[in-house]
From TrEMBL:
Membrane topology: Multi-pass membrane protein
Compartment list: Cell membrane
UniProt record similarity statement: Belongs to the 4-toluene sulfonate uptake permease (TSUP) (TC 2.A.102) family.
Record-annotated membrane-spanning stretches: 16-40, 52-73, 85-103, 150-174, 181-206, 212-235, 247-266
Organism: Natronorubrum bangense
Record's keyword annotation contains Transport: yes
Keywords per UniProt: Cell membrane, Membrane, Transmembrane, Transmembrane helix, Transport
GO cellular component: plasma membrane
Protein name: Probable membrane transporter protein
Length: 267
């Protein structure tokens, strides 16, 4: 359960300004790349409140930013992608609920380290500067659209997402489908909108919001997040795909490293 000290500390003027700017930046990243908001935002909050507090406070802003990105899809694309990815989405949803149910029982330091490790693993797997032996074979074998594999990947992805807000494993799977850039952003938003809409209700059912004030704070954090997304969407056409990818990976590497060091008590 959240401590009142953690929640109150999160809204003092200095901390509030830091969080607002960071969520604005996280929104910009999401508007450009289609993902990254949950990682950047959760990491920022995790530096001033308990990681489990950060995870729950970010649920509404994550939902809001992904709803804003649904404009990337037209009606035909929504129907096509729903038919194509529904086993993965459903399994991810179930796994997410399992991860949320376990959230309060996870100690803060291991949770922080887990956030960082998963983030760095995604950066390592996605970067193209250093070839990773066996990566292509692994993707060909695991990142497929066979129903059984989609259910397995989705369940694991959901457990991690529900407990940490880290969704890079979902990003990695959708990206492996070689979708056009705009469609990739829209499909990713579609997946996360459904999952996070359920997460809002699940957080209430599981008692993760201890007071109305916490819920109001979570809703308020959606405002700078949406402003950032709108700014990022305006910038996106001016940036090459290479610059987008390298910029996001560099930011995620910094975040992942900071989380691991913080969880180990080094930084």
């Amino acid at each position: 359960m959240f401590s009142q000290h953690a929640v109150i500390g999160a809204v003092d003027p200095t901390t509030a300004a830091f969080v607002l700017v960071t969520l604005l930046l996280a929104g910009v990243v999401t508007g450009i790349a289609g993902f990254g908001f949950a990682l950047v935002g959760t990491m920022a909050l995790a530096t001033v409140v308990d990681p489990s507090v950060a995870v729950v406070l970010m649920i509404v802003p994550i939902l809001a930013t992904n709803v804003s990105l649904l404009g990337e899809l037209d009606a035909d694309a929504v129907r096509s992608c729903s038919r194509r990815f529904w086993p993965y989405v459903l399994a991810t949803l179930v796994g997410t609920l399992v991860g949320m149910a376990a959230l309060e029982s996870i100690p803060a330091d291991p949770l922080t380290i887990a956030l960082g490790v998963v983030t760095l693993a995604y950066v390592g797997a996605t970067q193209r500067a250093v070839p990773i032996p066996g990566r292509a074979a692994l993707e060909d074998r695991c990142f497929v659209e066979r129903r059984g594999m989609m259910v397995g990947l989705g369940t694991i992805s959901g457990v991690v997402f529900g407990a940490t807000n880290v969704g890079v494993q979902v990003v990695a799977y959708i990206r492996s489908r070689d979708l056009e850039a705009g469609l990739f952003v829209g499909v990713l938003a579609l997946v996360f909108v459904g999952i996070n809409a359920v997460r809002v209700g699940a957080a209430v059912v599981f008692g993760l919001y201890p007071s109305l004030a916490v819920g109001v704070l979570s809703v308020a954090l959606a405002i700078p997040a949406l402003a950032g997304v709108l700014a990022g969407r305006r910038v996106r056409p001016q940036l090459s795909e290479r610059i987008q990818r390298q910029g996001v990976l560099a930011l995620l590497a910094l975040i992942g490293g900071r989380l691991v060091l913080g969880g180990l008590g080094i930084a």
